[in-house]
Amino acid sequence: QQQVKQSPQSLIVQKGGISIINCAYENTAFDYFPWYQQFPGKGPALLIAIRPDVSEKKEGRFTISFNKSAKQFSLHIMDSQPGDSATYFCAARNGAGNNRKLIWGLGTSLAVNP
Amino acid sequence: NAGVMQNPRHLVRRRGQEARLRCSPMKGHSHVYWYRQLPEEGLKFMVYLQKENIIDESGMPKERFSAEFPKEGPSILRIQQVVRGDSAAYFCASSPVGGSGANVLTFGAGSRLTVL
What we know:
The complex is a heterodimer.
Chain A: E1 4-7, E2 10-14, E3 19-25, E4 30-38, E5 45-50, E6 56-59, E7 62-67, E8 72-77, E9 86-94, E10 102-104, E11 108-113
Parallel strand pairs in A: 2-11
Antiparallel strand pairs in A: 1-3, 3-8, 4-5, 4-9, 6-7, 7-8, 9-10, 9-11
Chain B: E1 5-7, E2 10-13, E3 19-24, E4 29-37, E5 43-50, E6 53-56, E7 65-68, E8 75-79, E9 88-96, E10 106-107, E11 111-115
Parallel strand pairs in B: 2-11
Antiparallel strand pairs in B: 1-3, 3-8, 4-5, 4-9, 5-6, 7-8, 9-10, 9-11
């Protein structure tokens, strides 16, 4: 059972375009939603994160849009660059209890063509 | 601050041998997580540990796999009697106890296990 569903599995975007990756969740106890970026041969690194009390968070060219009622959140990469080519993972954390384990999406492989 | 250090970066074992993967968390971090990643697949949670305690091992296979995070020294993921299906990249991540960074996982570069 995939608690965080991520789409698309792969994405090809032209340089300068907008990359959009979507995630959906079921558990309303989730209270923290990060996005991680992973380059080949490297470990994932935190890109940007949001809590459900805000609908949008922007850091440079990266924006998270959060829709609490629809239980969906998305990553938008504006002015996509070839250097953005990587695998992107969304995740969610259950705020209840002491277990800080993240629940992960299956990842989206992004390729930005020059 | 050297970040999360994993070693070895690459490990080759024959079927039936043991694999030991080590992870030194970031300075000041006392929570460690182990993940497994197969090619073209996502991160699969294995185990979450604090110093001397296993908090959540729901993702760890019941047989052949074990993990520890002793009071002194690195966290160790141990795989006994390895099989070809154990070939994967194993990532360790750490996080601090509390504060604004408590939710942020810092990952190591991974240990790539190949079972011949």
